[in-house]
Design brief:
Largest interface: A-B, 57 and 65 residues
Protein name (chain B): HTTM-like domain-containing protein
Number of strands of chain B: 11
Oligomer: heterodimer
Helix content of chain A: 40-55%
Largest sheet of chain B: 4 strands, mixed
Strand order of the largest sheet of chain B: 4-3-5-6
Number of helices of chain B: 26
Shape of chain B: globular
Subcellular location (chain B): Endomembrane system
Membrane topology (chain B): Multi-pass membrane protein
Number of helices of chain A: 34
Radius of gyration of chain B: 30 Å
Organism (chain B): Chondromyces apiculatus DSM 436
Structural class of chain B: alpha+beta
Shape of chain A: globular
InterPro entries (chain B): HTTM-like (IPR011020), Sporulation_signal_mat (IPR052964)
Chain lengths: ~725, ~675
């Protein structure tokens, strides 16, 4: 029981880690694409906060580090962001995963810390998740590394080998582990605790009346600073009752998720339920609000709690309706290579392979749990046909050729249903297919694959330096461990995720006849020497210590930033832990819409006058509109929302000068249009307007026009046209 | 013959003579350059507190503020991202680690690129101390980044050889494969325009250093005299020399410098007789820069120019060296315990170190060495407890050595082993011998611990390059050479613009497009070569601070002692290059911006924070450029000592404690040069 508990809380399935990496990578890529749109505004010295100004204002106050502080001009900022994009893409596809995971963390921190006024809770969450998972083998599954290692380990040559889906023996898996690998790790516990902390603290923070009476989402959606385009539509389209339900849904999800994650019973179902809730919760926040990475990070985190049993059930259950037999050209090296690739993508074992040299009037197909069987070959499949094209036969005996066959194959893969429209458009690409098919032997030779039609070109060793780099694709490093994890399927050796339904035995030492790949593998992998084992233990110890340090920093920081129980609140924060939290921007403040969303709609209005004497709001490009209902949501992204919400506050006064200069040079309008409006002067106001309660204001009580506060004046000031519609809160320029 | 064919042949000849680099040369160069980079990183790391962090004379935010020119300054330093001293320590630690990885040749290409980024970043973080030496480092890192410096004598090459030559039995150790036979590094050489650029760049450095030195002092032969009297930058050895050397002896030295620099250009570029010309060039470079290095505190210049000379090693030199060493080394038969996996593993190591092919390997039992005991130095001894782990035998006389003696005999047959082995024994206090004795006693246990087997377990073979990979490789090489040629053109353009001896008609600085400026500006690839030209400086100077503490003491925060405002009695200031160049630059009017309100003034006002003593708090200071004139030729006494106030500070509203004199009035800041 203790072992089960330990595994439940301190062990994460390799497939869960792989899925997390893919989703998190996607979220980071989309985020950096968004940041590219505002590169001038937030990452260049022409923007709201030049690097020197930021560093100067931070000195002695906060420990902040960002690579982007070294970049000054807009061009440099673009280069920096493109490098970040490359890093996140490499992390997403799992290429040299460990290296790019660490780099992704560095860049996530750097992107966040370049402008501390624009950072948000999404950055804190994504950095925390990246930090903990950096200690875990996230490239073990669903990655280029694992694919390359798997291809190197198992060199299938026949259809029988392609159809052999058994996992690798435990000894093999252990032999190629990364130094210090352990199925149970502090990092796994840490990331789970982090997910619990995010949700639990969010729930604790939401102590306002609006969350209790169900009006919170109504108010939140009417806050134009934070609402997304979809959110703005939803607030008008959905009734008060639905929003109330959604409010309670969000609130209770944040309470239930941590409970489901820590409850020590019914592991499979509690974890699955928690994952589902996390996805819904994260998606709602991501779609309805401009919270940056927050929603996406929570969705990605959901992958981490998918239990091993769920993966095993998924992988062991081929979908009968999507099972196919693929007849490929056995003489074509490229075709075999593609078949080997497909085998690795085919997690559910839907595809059975058959070489065109092995027809003998019989079709090989998978028969549920009975394994592979032979059936009569459909009449239309002839020797001549299988020489010309790939042939796919589905369970109903329908035969597909060329691009249509390719489309059928793609739809049989996990998530392939998303590619269903390919079935319709595929035939249009038959010309392309034919062009490739007729040259397949030449392509095979080019790729260094053997081809019966043309002898393979003599291959030569690669140059030393190339070899030194590319050689890493062998049995060492993460790639090998990745393959091991792929082999074991679960990230450890207790289960055998790759074992097909037909051969549902746990992978062990026994080598069944015909499993030539597995036999070869056992011989290829060396024993683990005591020296290497010692290195592994030392490296593993260091890894665990580092993870424990991050965990301690996270716990203390979370306790200080959130209304946790008194016993936790008094935790001391030694300087080292404070440094770790501050530099990494793992600030642990989970206060989204807490204690309740503002009951006022707030927005910055810039009343600028151009040289031509025209009044213009530099955020909208049209005349300043002080009536927020007529103005509409900001919809410029989380960076702008966070920045505007902070820069107007007195504690950030020293940052306003740079902002004023930025607005004076055209502000966001210049960034978006590239045209300098030549600002002669401007006034910036913070306009606050009460939001009517759900169902409208009580009878006899009108919603006020609100107030506006003048933040600053630049140059000649604004024209003030129409500004009087909202009264000034404090007459006179405050600063 | 068609013009095109002629041009093709000319290009071939040119690349064969200037663009072909020996892989061994590149390997040795990498080790030398990497070690120099490590030393350079450590040297700058020592100054991190006052020169590279926000606790020093130039905070990152202030430097960035000074540089702040939206869209146009072409300056970048990774070190600007590091603010506090702790952060800067991390940055330097990572940099030194990167240089070390480059030096040992682990992931050589990656760390070559990273080293280039880091050296240029270090340079620009503190531009006030940048000199020609820093630019030399940048250029050297740039050109060699495109060359396969990790193909030989590197961890990469070592690992590669283990995958390429998977010996299964002792006889296999006697079969040696060629060093490399693939790609553009075929036959042990590489052809690249980067090699052309590296060779021509160093030749240009000497050429312009000669032609720019056209002043009267150089012609009169008095330069050495003046330079030796620059107390700001001389070493103790130079002080000794100037005090003992008569004037007549300094004149030939001055002219000698010119002659050597002038001779180096043809010696480096002469396409024939390279065994002599290149060897001579290397010797002259070592002599010239070695002398500079021990006499003057010029920072990296001298040592990296010596490092650059290693690129001049041609195959002819390697062959001569091999012949020379082979004549002095004796072939040996290494007798390995045929049943020990550990002995076989040692044999594999020795086979890879045996560059001269002087070792043969055989298993014990095949010869008279069978049963040689592990006792040290026993000649021809027959063991009582079984075979020695490793023994050595002279194939001519049949004499057998075991233990430490065997190691010595094997080492003398390895390249450089005659020199390295005794040094290694002394430095490690005989550890290799003790380790061998221990391993011989516990050979089974040691083999088990390291997982050694007989035959050894196979490791993944080297990947083979597919035809598609070959085509992509060609594209990659083509692109790389294209980049090198572009950089070469930029460097040529910069040479023309930067050097005053080039005719004005050729200068085209105002026509340079922005991307060329960016290419030169970001990595600091300047080409102005004119140290001590047209004449050497004849006035000497240092910075002194006359600061008054809150308890009325006068102190110089840079030294911690009382201010020294007299330079004429100096026998060398003992300043390192970073400090002396900072002093020399901060005095200039163009660098006023780095004095106050932040920069130097802020640094001085934090003096008490650095000492940790409240009574050291400064209430006033005058920063003075203390200068004198170097002695005239024939004289030993400097003269005309004067102090120029360049920065003056009095704490606003400060009233001295009872009994202390009032603060002197604020001094007017004057120009100490521009």
């Amino acid at each position: 029981m203790l072992t089960k508990l330990r595994d439940h809380f301190a062990r994460i399935d390799a497939r869960s880690l792989g899925l997390f990496r893919v989703v998190m990578g996607l979220v980071l890529v989309l985020d950096v694409l968004g940041r590219l749109q505002v590169a001038r505004d937030f990452y260049a010295n022409e923007g709201v906060l030049p690097n020197h100004n930021h560093l100067f204002n931070l000195r002695g106050k906060e420990e902040v580090w960002s690579l982007f502080h070294a970049l000054s001009t807009q061009g440099e900022a673009y280069v920096g962001l493109l490098v970040a994009l490359f890093v996140f893409l490499a992390f997403l596809v799992g290429w040299r995963t460990r290296v790019f995971h660490v780099l992704a963390l560095v860049f996530a921190v750097s992107l966040t810390a370049r402008n501390t006024l624009a950072e948000g809770v999404g950055s804190y969450a994504s950095i925390a998740l990246l930090a903990f998972t950096a200690f875990l083998p996230c490239g073990s599954r669903f990655s280029l590394d694992s694919l390359r290692a798997s291809m190197a380990l198992r060199d299938e040559q026949t259809s029988a080998e392609l159809n052999d889906r058994r996992a690798l023996p435990e000894r093999t898996v252990n032999a190629v582990r990364l130094p210090g690998w352990s199925p149970v790790t502090v990092a796994a516990f840490g990331v789970l605790l982090q997910i619990v902390a995010i949700h639990a603290c969010s729930a604790l923070q939401k102590s306002g009346e609006a969350w209790r009476d169900g009006s919170a989402l109504h108010y939140a959606l009417h806050g134009d600073l934070w609402v997304s385009g979809l959110g703005a539509w939803v607030r008008g389209a959905l009734g008060a009752g639905v929003l109330k339900g959604l409010t309670f849904g969000l609130r209770y999800a944040e309470i239930v998720i941590p409970v489901l994650l820590v409850v020590p019973v019914a592991f499979r179902w509690t974890r699955l339920a928690a994952a589902a809730l996390m996805v819904v919760h994260g998606l709602v926040l991501a779609l309805l609000f401009e919270l940056g990475l927050y929603g996406g990070a929570l969705v990605a985190a959901a992958a981490l709690v998918v239990p091993v049993e769920a993966w095993a059930a998924f992988e062991r259950s081929p979908k009968p309706g999507r099972m196919l037999t693929v007849i490929y050209d056995a003489d074509c090296g490229m075709c075999l290579w593609l078949a080997r690739l497909l085998k690795r993508f085919d997690l559910r074992t839907n595809i059975t392979f058959q070489g065109n040299d092995d027809l003998s009037a019989m079709l090989v197909r998978r028969a549920g749990k009975k394994g592979v069987e032979r059936a009569p070959l459909p009449a239309e499949i002839t020797e001549e046909l299988v020489q010309r094209t790939v042939v796919v036969v589905d369970v109903e005996g329908r035969v597909f050729l060329r691009t249509r066959a390719v489309a059928e194959i793609v739809t049989a893969l996990p998530l392939g249903i998303l590619a269903a429209p390919l079935r319709v458009v595929a035939p249009a690409f038959d010309v392309l297919y034919n062009a490739v098919a007729t040259k397949r032997h030449r392509i095979s030779v080019l790729m260094g694959k053997t081809s019966c039609a043309i002898p393979a070109a003599p291959a030569r060793a690669v140059s030393p330096e190339v070899g030194a780099v590319e050689g890493a694709a062998g049995l060492t490093g993460e790639g090998a461990a990745s393959e091991a994890d792929e082999g074991s399927g679960t990230g450890d050796v207790a289960d055998a995720g790759e074992v097909s339904g037909a051969q549902a035995s746990v992978a062990g030492e026994a080598e069944a006849p015909g499993s030539a790949g597995a036999v070869a593998l056992v011989h290829a992998v060396p024993e683990v020497s005591p020296a290497r084992r010692t290195v592994r233990h030392v490296a593993g110890g260091l890894r665990e210590l580092s993870a424990a340090l991050v965990l301690a920093a996270m716990v203390v920081q979370t306790a200080r930033q959130n209304p946790v129980p008194a016993a936790l609140a008094g935790l001391p924060q030694p300087p080292l832990l404070a440094t770790v939290s501050s530099f990494s921007r793992m600030l642990g403040r989970w206060d989204v819409m807490a204690p309740e969303p503002r009951r006022t709609n707030e927005m910055m209005i810039v009343d600028a006058q151009t040289r031509a004497g025209e009044a213009m709001d530099l955020f909208t490009g049209s005349a300043p509109e002080v009536d927020l209902a007529a103005r509409g949501p900001l919809r410029m992204g989380q960076l702008w929302s966070s920045y505007l919400d902070r820069v107007r506050r007195p504690e950030f006064l020293e940052f306003q000068r740079a902002f004023r200069d930025y607005l004076g040079k055209g502000g966001p309008l210049r960034s978006r249009t590239g045209v300098d409006p030549i600002v002669a002067g401007l006034d910036a106001y913070w306009v606050v307007k009460p939001i009517a309660p759900p169902g409208g204001a009580p009878e006899g009580e009108a919603v006020g026009a609100g107030t506006r506060e003048k933040l600053f004046t630049h140059g000649r000031g604004g024209l003030g046209t129409g500004m009087d519609a909202v009264p000034l809160a404090r007459p006179g320029v405050r600063r | 013959m068609h013009l095109r064919a002629r041009l093709g042949r000319a290009k071939q000849w040119f690349l064969a003579h200037y663009g072909t680099a020996d892989l061994r040369t590149l390997g040795v160069f990498r080790i030398v350059f990497g070690c120099l980079l490590v030393a350079e990183g450590l040297r700058r790391w020592r100054e991190a507190g006052w020169a590279y962090s926000n606790e020093g004379v130039l905070a990152n935010h202030y430097h960035l503020y000074v540089l702040y020119r939206p869209s146009g300054s072409y300056s970048f330093s990774l070190f600007h991202a590091f603010s506090s001293l702790a952060e800067v320590h991390v940055a330097f630690a990572l940099s030194v680690a990167c240089f070390f990885c480059y030096a040992i040749g682990w992931k050589s290409r990656l760390f070559a690129v990273l080293s280039f980024v880091l050296v240029t970043s270090m340079d620009w973080r503190m531009p006030l101390v940048e000199n020609g030496g820093y630019v030399v480092v940048n250029l050297l890192a740039l050109w060699t980044m495109f060359l396969p410096t990790g193909a030989r004598f590197s961890v990469d090459a070592w690992l590669r050889s283990y995958r390429a030559r998977q010996e299964r039995a002792i006889d296999d150790l006697n079969v040696r494969a060629p060093a490399s036979d693939a790609g553009d590094v075929g036959a042990g050489t590489v052809v690249s325009w980067a090699a052309v650029c590296a060779v021509f760049n160093v030749a240009c450095i000497y050429y312009f250093n000669v032609v720019n030195k056209a002043g009267a002092i150089w012609r009169a032969g008095d330069t050495v005299h003046y330079v030796l009297h620059l107390d700001r930058m001389v070493t103790g050895l130079a002080v000794l020399m100037r005090e003992t050397l008569p004037l007549w002896a300094t004149k030939p030295l001055t002219w000698g410098v010119l002659v050597v620099e002038a001779a180096l250009v043809p010696l480096i570029l002469w396409p024939f007789g390279r065994r002599v010309t290149r060897s001579l060039a290397m010797l002259l470079m070592w002599g010239l820069h070695g002398t500079f290095g021990v006499m003057m505190r010029l920072g990296p210049f001298s040592w990296f120019m010596i490092g650059w000379s290693f690129l001049l090693l041609a195959p002819a030199q390697w062959e001569a060296l091999a012949r020379w060493y082979r004549e002095r080394a004796s072939p040996r038969v290494v007798v390995l315990d045929g049943s020990s996996p550990l002995a076989f593993a040692l044999g594999r190591v020795l086979a890879r170190l045996d560059g001269l092919d002087l070792l043969r390997f055989e298993a014990s039992g095949e010869s008279g060495a069978s049963g040689a005991s592990g006792a040290s130095g026993a000649s021809g001894a027959s063991g009582a407890r079984g075979a020695a782990l490793v023994a050595a035998r002279d194939p001519a006389s049949g004499q057998v050595w075991t233990g430490a003696a065997a190691l010595g005999e094997i080492a003398q047959a390895l390249p450089g082993g005659k020199v390295v082995w005794p040094v290694l024994r002394v430095v490690t206090l005989g550890a290799p011998v003790k380790a061998l004795a221990f391993a011989a006693r516990r050979r089974e246990a040691v083999a088990r611990f390291f997982g050694l087997t007989l035959p050894p377990r196979p490791v993944p073979a080297l990947p083979v390059e597919t035809p598609l990979g070959q085509q992509l490789g060609r594209v990659r090489r083509f692109a790389r050479e294209g980049v090198v040629i572009y950089l070469g053109l930029c460097a040529t353009s910069q040479l023309i613009n930067d050097n005053k001896s080039v005719a004005a008609a050729l200068k085209h600085d105002e026509y340079m497009p922005w991307f060329v400026r960016a290419t030169i500006g970001y990595p600091r690839l300047f080409q102005a070569w004119g140290m001590f030209s047209a004449n050497p400086i004849t006035d000497d100077g240092v910075l002194a601070v006359d600061a008054i503490t809150v308890d009325g003491r006068h102190v110089d925060p840079f030294t911690g002692g009382p201010p020294d405002l007299v330079l004429t009695d100096s026998r060398g200031e003992g300043l390192n290059q970073i400090r002396q160049d900072y002093f020399n630059r901060i005095r200039l009017d163009r660098n006023k911006v780095f004095r106050k309100p932040q920069g130097l003034q802020e640094y001085l006002l934090r003096y008490h924070e650095r000492t940790g003593k409240a009574e050291d708090e400064l209430v006033a200071f005058d920063v003075l450029w203390v200068r004198d004139q170097c002695p005239r030729p024939g004289s030993k006494a400097p003269y005309a000592n004067e102090t120029v106030p360049i920065l003056s500070y009095r704490r606003p509203g400060y009233r001295p404690r009872a009994g202390l004199p009032p603060l002197p009035p604020l001094r007017k800041e004057e120009s100490a040069g521009d």
